[in-house]
Amino acid sequence: MKADLHCHSNVSDGLLSPAEVARRAADRGLELWSLTDHDEVAGLAEARAVAEERGLRFLDGSEISVSWRDDASFHVVGLGIDPAYPALVAGLKGIRDGRDGRAHRIAAELEKAGIRGAYEGAARYAEKASIISRAHFARFLVERKISPDVKSVFDHYLAKGKPGYVPHEWASVEDALRWIGNAGGVAVLAHPLRYRVSRDDLRVFLGEFKDCGGQGIEVACGAHSPEEVKECARLARHFGLKASVASDFHGPGESYADLGMTPPLPDDLVPIWHDLV
Ligand SMILES: [Zn+2]
Ligand SMILES: [Zn+2]
User: Fold this and answer.
1) Smallest-distance ligand from the CA of 255
2) Which CATH superfamily is domain 3-92+168-275 in?
């Protein structure tokens, strides 16, 4: 099964519309695909319609931001969810409302660093989106020639310890996994080696994630090196989690990997779609 179960449209911080991402997924030969916008489900109906028209199996998804302990945050992808499930809809709206407050605080911090008008600038890039994310700020800073590309904006302005960083409280792990589970979906830890936590803390988190009903972990990640893929596979085996495949595509030229450009899953792992399709 050629699958890609993690990517974004302009409903959150991607560059293409849900229909454009769906067409690209079909053109790139995927057989199973999910759109997983940050804390949002608004693009799913459009994505599903185009996917089904093209004979592409589609899973409704969303990538939910969660906080853990003092100041760590993780991303949990819900797959096979019912996007109309009321507690999920309300929970995601709560996170999006919090994101707007965060966007104002990021802009205030950037202003202290001499960068003016960042909220309005980021909002322009978030025109079709219901959230303003750090990627939108990054595009504005690139436009202003403050940094050469989105990645260096994150490294120099938006990451922890940098001038535009603000701590933020997201959903709890328990809440996010309850919304996903009650909406009929499965919860998958996104890009496991892209968090600013120690390997020991990652393992503690994964234990709690599993205890709360988490079922999967991204193993074949577009952003991970071959060694990192192996490490994720070991985590999947150790915690008895199913394995997912994820390009985390945001748009042409802005992502590590295009749709479907993911490493192969190790043969011994159970794919996350085993019980979903
Ligand atoms: Zn993520
Ligand atoms: Zn993502």
Assistant:
1) 2
2) Metal-dependent hydrolases (3.20.20.140)
Q: Ligand nearest 35 Cα, by number?
A: 2
Percentage of the chain beyond pLDDT 70 is 100
- The closest ligand to the CA of 73 turns out to be 1
Question: How far does the centroid of ligand 1 lie from the alpha carbon of residue 75, in Å?
Answer: 5
Cross-strand bridge partners of residue 35:
60
Q: Collapsing DSSP states into helix, strand and coil, what is residue 24? A: helix
What tens digit of pLDDT does each residue of 33-75 get?
Answer: 999 999 999 999 999 999 999 999 999 999 999 999 988 999 9
Q: How far is the CA of 96 from the centre of ligand 2 (A)?
A: 15
- Cβ atoms 83, 44 nearer than 8 A: yes
Whole-model pTM: value is 0.92
Q: State how far the Cα of 103 lies from the Cα of 93, in Å rounded to an integer.
A: 15
Distance 204 CA to ligand 2 centre (A): 22
Cα 154 to Cα 15, 56, 134, 139, 142: the distances in Å are 17, 34, 8, 10, 11
CA of 177 to the centre of ligand 1 (A): 16
Distance 13 CA to ligand 1 centre (A): 11
Query: Which CATH code, of 1.10.150.650, 3.40.190.10, 2.40.10.120, 2.60.40.420, is assigned to 100-158?
Result: 1.10.150.650
Domain ranges within the chain, ordered by starting residue: 3-92+168-275, 100-158
CA of 69 relative to ligand 1 center, distance in Å = 18
Strands 57-68 vs 72-79: parallel, antiparallel or unpaired: antiparallel
